[in-house]
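Deliverable D4.2, example record:
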Amino acid sequence: MGELLKGKVAVVTGASRGIGEATALTLAQAGADVVVTARTGDELAALAERLARMDVAALPVAADLTREEDVARLREATLARFGRADILVNNAGVGKYGPLSALSAADYDWMMNTNMRSSFLCTSAFLPGMLERRQGWVVFVSSVAGLKGLPNESVYCATKFAQMGFAQALDYETREQGVKVSVVAPGGVGTHFAFGTGRTPGDPSLEAMMDAKDVAEAVLFAVTQPPKVRVFLIGMRPMSEPL
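Output generated by the structure prediction step:
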């Protein structure tokens, strides 16, 4: 186990698979105790067992992070177990690809609520304690789709642009009070993301994409900078993708 984050408590959303799972494991390897949350309880329990074998404390909390009552329960469980949260990784996210004509209002609500509403609710829940202690890290796992409009991703881009604007405003509000805000914006990552809503399992292009661990390492980099340094934006793309 590493020492970089020993004594810190991290909350990772969307942690059951993909980037969230890799991030939880990477932060634990650096010594952090980890609260993992997602909708799927069985996968979270299995992840918590893996984390516990790494000699850190792990707390799985199954929750729908678009619901205020679930986020309140997540906060209460975290504080009851650890007393605080030092790091929040807003990673929960979904996407559906296709032309605007193929997207419905229900698709919009699903993506905007999962990607942006959950970020708002979780940040609102954990930020006050960080501000009170004058120390903390809020990380958003966004996307290059939050930096540039892309075809067949109109609504997904809208959710990620919203997340980017939220993070920028938050940095202005929290920097002088000791809380660091970071955005990690990856391109294609070879995970389960968007399977059935624009991606197909077994697609050869997935092999050329980044690994979830690559993004997790960027999150670790963001939260282990010296006290006088904050990294606001890390843009990442696989070598197979143009800018």
